[in-house]
Structure formats: C-alpha cells, structure tokens
Amino acid sequence: MPRVLGVRPVPSSVRPTGGRVSAPEGWCPRRRGHAIPGRCRRRAGRSATSRPFVNPLAPVDVYALTEPRPFALRRQPSWSCPPSRPASRSHPASKGRKLLYRVRFGAVWVLSNRFDAPEGAPDGAHGRARVQVGEWRALTRRGGGQYAAVVIDSPGSSARETSGSAGTGGATGAHDEGPVRDVASARGAADTAGADGGAAGVRRVARGDAAYHAAVRDPLFNRLVPGGTPDAVAYPQSEADLVALVSAARDSGEKLALRSGGHSWVAASVRDDGLLVDLAAFDQVSIDTTARTATVGPAVRGGELGQTLVAVDLAFPVGHCGRPGVGGFLLGGGLGLNWGQWLPSCFSIRSMRVVLASGEVVTASATENADLFWLARGSGPGFPGIVTEFELDLRPLPRDIRLSSWTFDLAHVEAVTEWVSRAVRTLPASVEVSVVLQGPERPDGPATAGGDPDAPTHVVSVVAISYTDTEAEAREAFAALDEGPGPGIRPSGHTDRLSVAFDELHVGVDATYPDGHRYLADTFWSPRDLGDLLPRLADLLRRAPSGKTYFLSAMPGHGEGRTLLPVGEAAYGMHDTSLIVPYVIWGDEADDAVNRAWLNEVKAMLEPLSSGHFLSEADLRFSPERSAGSFRTEDWARIQSLTELFDPTGVFHRYPLA
C-alpha cells in the first residue's frame, strides 16, 4: 500500500498524469485525486479504500475542512508512525478556507492552493507552514501555486511499478523509524517500459509532424532559437529506453542531443539532424535524511529541488534561477547559491548513473569510473553520455538567511564598486555578494509597469545574502558592508537584513528573465577587481538597445576565486578574481541584429581584460572558441582525450558550433 509522506508545488508548466493506486486506510480521495489524512464524510455504500485514488501528482482541488471536527491519524504500518499514539484532540475552529490538522511524525508539508494570508499580513503576502508532531498550524497560500501529495513506495511494494508516481517532489522530515525516502524513478521502469519495444517503442515526434515545431521549441526558455532542425524529438521513459536509443544511434550513425530542462542560453540541445532526446520523464527525487543525500533525475528543476529539501531542513547549492533542470546545471559546473562557501555545485555530486555511447549503464564516482566522473563535472553540453540520476551531498539548511541590498544611481558606479571590492575581502565565506548594472526596464524600474516612476533610469545595485544560523551571526557577517560607498552617496533603495527562505531566493532572479523573450549572454573571468571593470561598462549599458539588458557580476571567494577550487579534481576548473555576465534581453525579432551588435561591443571591451569564460552561459553559438576558453589548457586537452575514449564513434553531439 502506498504511503503519502509529503507534498510539493506543481509548476504551472507541468500537467502530469498517471495511473491509479489504492488509497491507504484513513485517507479521503477527493475530487480530481486529492486526499487528506483523517476521517472524512463517506458516500453511502462506498468506503474510502474501495474508491479509486487518482495520481496525486495531477492538478488537484484541495479539500479543506469547513467545520470543526475531531480526528486523529491512525497508526498503521504503511505510515511508519512512531510507536506512541498521541491522544486525539478536537480540530480547532477553521476560518475561511484554512486547513488545520495534526500529524504524527516528523515535519510534513501541509497542502493548499486556496488559503488566506496570515492574519495581519500585508496584501499579497505569501505564507507557508509546517506542522511538527503534536502541533496545530495554519497553512496559507504560497505563490499561487498548486500543491500535490507525493506517493512513495511502502514496504513490500515498489514505487517504480506505480505509474502514478513518475513526477516526484517533496518529502517529510525524518521520523522515529528511519529516514524518509521519496522514490519515484524513471530508472526503475527499465525492467518494463522500454524493454519490450526497444528504440521503436519510444514515442517520437518527427520532422514533418504537426507537433514537430512545438516539440523542438516550446520547452526552450530562450525564444532566440538557432536554426537547427533535428530529425525527431524522442521521449524516453526509462533507462531501458535510453539504452535502446543509444544502441540504435550507434548502429545507424545518428547523433544524439539531450535536453533536461530547455534553459540553455544557446539552446545547446537543438542541433541539425540526429535525434533530440527529451529527458522530461527523469524528474525523480529521493531523499535520505540520515545520510544527507538526494538522488535526483536530470529534469528536476532547481527551484523544485530547493523547495523539496527545505521541507526536511536540508539544502543544496541549487541555481540562483529556479527554472533550469539540474542535469545541464550540474554538468556545466553549477554556480549555485552560496557557491563561494559551498563551491560550485558539481563538487557536491557524490555519484551518478550514466548511459555510455556503448549502451552500457555505469556508475561514476570518485572511486568508480573516476575518469568519467571527472569529465562529467564541468564539461557541460560536450559530455559524451546520458546521466539518468545524480546522487548529491546535502547540507544542513541555514537557519537564518538574510538579504541586504543597496541601489544607487549609475553615476556612482565607480564609488560603489570600489566600496564592494574593498569590503568583500573581509567578508566571511557565508556571505554571497553580487553587483548588478541595470536599465530602466528592470522589474522595479521606471519604465516597467508597477515600477517606481521616480527611480533612477540606470542603476548599480549591490545584493548581499548571508547563510547563517542566527540573526546575530548575520549582523556580524554583514559588518564589512556597513561603511557604504562614502559620504554624500545615498541609495535610492535599501533593504536591511531581510529574512528570506532558502527556497524563495530564486524568485527575484527569475523576475529578471521574463518569459517569451529573446536572450544573448556571455561570460568573462578576469583577474581584476570589479572596481576596475564595471565603471568601463556604464556607458555601454546606457546605450543598450533594450532597457531589460543588464550586467551581473561577482567576486567568488571574495577576490580569492583562483584558489577557491580544488585544482584538477574536476573538468570544471576555470576561476578568477571577478566574473562578469552580460544578459541581453529583448522581445522583437526585428531587434536581433542591433542587440547582437551591442553584445559584440561588450566582448571587444572585456576580452582583453579576461582570462577565460564560464561555459554554461558563454556565447558558444556565435563564439565557438568559448568552449576551449572555459577550461584550463591542461583540462581542455584531457576533456578532448576522454571524450574520444568514451564516445569514439561520435554518438553524441559535441560542443555547439557557430
């Protein structure tokens, strides 16, 4: 019998469907497949367990109590409850659509999509709640998203055989009988789904089909899509499907390109000819709270992973943007949250399962297939294999995360960047600092609906985030920034040590990447301080064709970026004092040429000051030399050698070319 141990947000872009499973005793199946633990009104002649329990990952209407009623969860093996049985207690009076109920183990997400903000909260406030053992808490609406329960396997059964559990999410905290494991794996279907039909049994959308254009382009974040036209898009559901696709490609000479999320700035998965393999089905998540590890599929979005881990008081350096799939993010190195302290995310990979060009499925780790493990951590879109799951090392969730920000008129860019360059060298590693140059169409800018009409047109903003456990630690961590850029230079906007949830840090970043737009980006590592680099870019920003375009910059390791990485441990090894990333953002195809010309000006200015590039956001399509320039010379030579070793016949596409 399945257990339902946690919930997670269901992105608006996801509409999962699935089979039916039996409802555990004491659960209430509700309209469109939802269930709440406890007693429920049952229709005459039909018990809860005899009614179908629809895949709870499907979009749901949340069942909320409308009147006070007593209930308590019943202890049963499928719940793995603690042996003690707390006394029943009456349900407190509910207000509006609030849902309150008692749970019996650990910390579990309660679910809702229709709850009011907390009493006394400002308009538009978002709320979130967890309930601890024996406590009552009200859950409030959070971000307007739907929430869904996660069905996992119970003793004596396998979630890998449960078709309704293919898109997993959160899990509860640990309870008395061991770690919570949320397992729903596309890998597990290898024994069934693809084994009979081979590559021919994998669904494809071929060139010429009515759905072809949408299959290639709709999942892509960037509307500036290159002209590549793959022969078809394939949708494998299991490792067996992937093995069959790789074997068929090897025999036929067909090349494979991979897509885990579609957030590549250069649409690296869209290549001429060959097969585009969409890994959307590989979105499994399994968390071991005792070992502090997570096993995740490549299609899991970083924002979703962060939310899932927060539910069990754990963290991982997921991307600052919540949308990318972790597959491409990790293979490219992964400059994630708190990366100055936690290092780029690829250094937190413990192991991975890889389908090789030979069709063999292997595990890669520091002790098993070590060369493959080295290659996978940083080689990005040139990696010659398909990773079906990553085992990640997790960290305790910082208990007190604080954000401070300062926004100044761009006229003060020199003083501001000199202040930051001085301050970061005395900041603790637990503080992450970014400096952003933005134009009038920034999210809160004067040219944006809802923005501040009196704000400066062009600004330089400093954002500092501390990852600590107490407010006192955060205050001490920020101390080096207290002096400011100097007398007479006052910020037009300032946020002082705002408390922020770990899984909400990506919200502000996501807002700077509007949907339906066209993007160019490039990256520049430099041995110079930001105070020497950013003032040179101020005039270029003022002349940018689009008001949405901006520069993002940082000094990883607080100016000690060159010594931040363990040298030679992974393919990812290019670091320096400062990193600058121009993001060119516009909406109209007619403006493609003028925005491309502007980025070329930026390149001409920064390249003489640069020591290399960050592969995942480099302009690989228009500057293919960026591939080699994103690695140390000796690492690039080793990448080339290992790529030939693992894929001698070229089953997988190499790095994107112009």
From TrEMBL:
Q: Which Gene3D superfamilies match?
A: 3.30.465.10, 3.40.462.20, Uridine Diphospho-n-acetylenolpyruvylglucosamine Reductase, domain 2
Q: Which InterPro entries match?
A: FAD-bd_PCMH, FAD-bd_PCMH-like_sf, FAD-bd_PCMH_sub1, FAD-bd_PCMH_sub2, FAD-linked_Oxidoreductase, Oxid_FAD_bind_N, Oxy_OxRdtase_FAD_BS
| Domain of life (superkingdom) | Bacteria
The cross-references to Pfam families, in alphabetical order and at most eight, read: FAD_binding_4 (PF01565)
Region described as Disordered: spans on this chain: 1-24, 75-94, 153-179
Q: Which controlled-vocabulary keywords does the entry list?
A: FAD, Flavoprotein, Oxidoreductase
**Single annotated GO MF:** oxidoreductase activity
Cofactors per UniProt? Answer: FAD
Please verify whether the record's keywords include Oxidoreductase: yes
Point to the regions of Low complexity compositional bias. Answer: 77-91, 156-165
Segments forming domain FAD-binding PCMH-type: 226-397
Q: Does the keyword Oxidoreductase apply?
A: yes
Q: Which family does it belong to?
A: Belongs to the oxygen-dependent FAD-linked oxidoreductase family.
Q: Know the name of this protein?
A: FAD-binding PCMH-type domain-containing protein
Q: Which organism is it from?
A: Subtercola boreus
